[in-house]
Amino acid sequence: MSPLKKKKLSKIRLELDKLDNSFIKLIKKRTNLVKRVLALKEKRSEIVDQKRIAVILKNIKRKSLKNKIDPKITNKIWSNMIAAYIDFERRNFKKK
Fold first, then answer.
1. Does residue 61 contact residue 71 with C-beta atoms inside 8 Å?
2. Structural domain containing residue 65
3. Residues 58-74: what's their mean pLDDT?
């Protein structure tokens, strides 16, 4: 790789790092909202809502196509995020 391309690559990676920092802040906000939702759930069986998951993924696909983003990328991201939060809820569910 030429020195010029290395310099351009470094600049782009810096932008990616800044964007990752923004994602961390958003994940913290989302986690706090999930904690509030979890506090309202009375039964462990309420943690997974397949209908809601289907609606979320359908909306993400629609928004991805509208914004010219490969829907396979966003589907994978959201599916993994949903799975991670389901795991989080299961680990943090407290019977009332």
1. yes
2. 3-92
3. 98
- Measured between alpha carbons, how far is residue 86 from residues 4, 25, 29, 49, 71 in Å? 45, 20, 16, 10, 22
DSSP state of 67: T
Determine contact, residues 88/34, Cβ cutoff 8 Å. yes
Residue 96 confidence (pLDDT):
52
Number of domains in the chain: 1
Q: What is the pTM of this model?
A: 0.89
CA distance 75 to 73: 6
Percent of the chain with pLDDT over 70: 98
Average the pLDDT over 40-63 and give the result: 97
State whether residue 48 is helix, strand or coil. Answer: coil
Chain CA centroid to CA 59, Å: 14
**CATH number of the domain that residue 82 is part of:** 1.20.59.10
